[in-house]
Amino acid sequence: MAEPYFDLQPVPAHPGWYSWNLTDPTCFNGAVMGAMMVRAEGAVSARLRMMPAQHHANMHAAVHGGVTLALADVSLFAAARMVGGAGVDGAVTLDLAAHFISPGRIGEPLDAVAEVLRETGRMVFLRGLIEQDGTLVASFSGALRKPSRR
Fold it and tell me: What is the pTM of this model?
């Protein structure tokens, strides 16, 4: 599925996964987060995966908290798009809260699993966990506001 600003394509090397990339790689997702993949998990959840690299590290050689928070934010949109209803294109983050539990490791897949709790005409409410190889890294909750109908 290709759109003017977004590219969601199957990832041949990872069956069941789709690329989660903007068509402009100079925007935040591509320039900072790097290539990401997404897949639906059940009727209300989606898993977003990134591969933390050295440029995602903090001074302790762990994944920077800002990267972890950005992954949570991007996963809200991934879940809303993959398992939510219509009208999430152009949505904005209205609220995002996170609890950092343990450090993420560089060089290993870092996953955000987000669940759509409720969707209304203008809002999507979600919660999720960030995990890495069975270790809980963070928990989060957030809300998206869909764009006004014009």
Answer: 0.94
Nearest CA-CA partner of 67 in 31, 93, 14, 115: 31
Q: What is the pLDDT of residues 116-142, one digit of tens each?
A: 999 999 999 999 999 999 999 999 999
Q: Tokens standing for 144?
A: 């998206």
How many whole angstroms separate alpha carbon 105 and alpha carbon 76? Answer: 22
Query: Closest Cα to residue 13, out of 67, 70, 57, 51?
Result: 51
Rounded to 5°, the CA angle 5-10-13 comes to 130
Q: How many helices and strands, by DSSP H and E, does the chain display?
A: 2, 9
- The two beta strands, 110-119 and 123-132, are antiparallel
Q: Cα–Cα distance between 97 and 25 in angstroms, integer? A: 27
Tokens at 52, concatenated: 């933390």
- The Cα 147–Cα 138 span in angstroms is 28
Domains and CATH numbers, the chain: 6-145 (3.10.129.10)
Please write the tens of the pLDDT for every residue from 22-81: 889 999 999 999 999 999 999 999 999 999 999 999 999 999 999 999 999 999 999 999
